[in-house]
Sequence to fold (542 residues):
Amino acid sequence: MIIRKNNVYRWAIPIVAFSLGNIVLAQAGNSDEPRICEEHQVPESVCPFCNPKLIESLGFCAGHDVPEALCTRCNASLIPAFKAEGDWCGGHGLPESQCVACNPSVEDKWVSMRPKPAPGTQRDPARLWCSEHDVYEDECFICHPDLKNKPANEATGRLMCKEHNVAEQECGICHPEIAPDLKPGESLRIRQISRNSATKAGVTTARPRPGVLSPGVSVFCEVRYNQNHLARITPLAPGVIDRVLVDVGQVVAEGDLLVEIVSSEIAAAKRDYLLALVDEKVKSLAFEREGQLLAKKIAAEADYQKAEAEFEMAKAVTTTARQTLLNYRFTDAEIRQIEGTKSSSSLMNVRAPYAGTLVERTAVVGEAIEPGAQLFTLANLSTMWLELAVPENQIASMHPGHVVEATFSGLPGETIQGELVWIDSRVDERTRLVRARALVPNPDVRLKSGMFGAVKVVLGKPLSMLRLPPSALQRFEGQPYVFVKENEDLFQLRRVAVGARDAHSVEILAGIVATDEVVVSGGFTMKSEFLKSRLGAGCVDD
Fold:
């Protein structure tokens, strides 16, 4: 027969006792001895390998999540059988077919055999469940012998963890498995060894900072020059660079002289203009003289009309020659200077079209250049573009005119506001992203072209929220938590809801209040204390 004691199965040979007067005869019947399976070294009647039907008939071991007939932790005598089958994990002391650590896929192997709750029954989520003995923890007299001394009406009261002096269902050290089911704002308690152990471990706390949450779409961005205020400085005539008067990085005003170029084409244009002026003057005098002769009836009217036509043609040539100089970017003052000095020098001045900063230079003295060759790049840095890449499933809620808030790792603690000015009309076929553009101010020129950052396109009214440093946030089984100080030796593992985050802060949308003292450094120490039961240092029996 099989005897179970302390969760261990043992084999016992029945003893038959007979009384004959004052003589007691105890005889062990040889016929009652179990027949041993030579292959697996266990009685054949309970050998799950020779009798597979036992797996279903003996039921399920809820404590170890395997069939009772295969549970080596309840019946250690089965161990030789598994070893004989070559099914043994020496590293974890379990059959290889049951070792979840080595083979995670076996966890669901016996799902179909797990006992299902009776119809119409439902566990109370507020009470802990003893999975080993299939009763509520506050009714389990095996795990908690002290409950036997309590009256029946008190046995189901609030069960306390004697080791950590908190309610059993709130003890995070004893029951870390409860944490994933917590909702934002709910917590478990973590009792420290002493009142100064947290301080010695370097644990420090701080209150969360108030902030404003702007609901919207968060995407990445790249800073670019405002193309509407970007100029490529190029010559309009071929020539040779004679002088470069400015350098890259220099701030220039509109009309400032940048480069002087020697060009024979410019000399010809000046010459043509001066010749046109002389010809116009000659034609003007001739026209005036013919007018006087006609008035005295000395000249024919045809001569007067011819002189008038030649004068108009001369004026047109002069106007064309002057416009040629203007097309070469000569100013009115420079043209008047040419008229005054009668100089047809080959010097051409290249000036800044508007105020800005020279962000690129390629001009070199002595270099021969052609029209269109880039000399400088001039940018007005008072505003910048943010190039956005928006997922196609988020673009429907965005429209030009929406406010954007940009943050950059290179500008800690700063949020730069701007306006969404453009959304592309097509989706990139490869990335499935939609390009968009925002315009932001850059008065102190701290934004640099090529910087990467994060942008939130604000889609609603701002909401109040709290901020914590990223070091305060801890994750357990994929969920966010913080540690909140209750007193010197007692902390709470509090579930929170988080929003956007950057390198310096994380938004806490729910779970804490402004007066909470939250652990901001030493969180790993607190997490280790919380998880020490999984490391083999949790509650122990007295």
The CA atoms of residues 86 and 521 lie 49 Å apart.
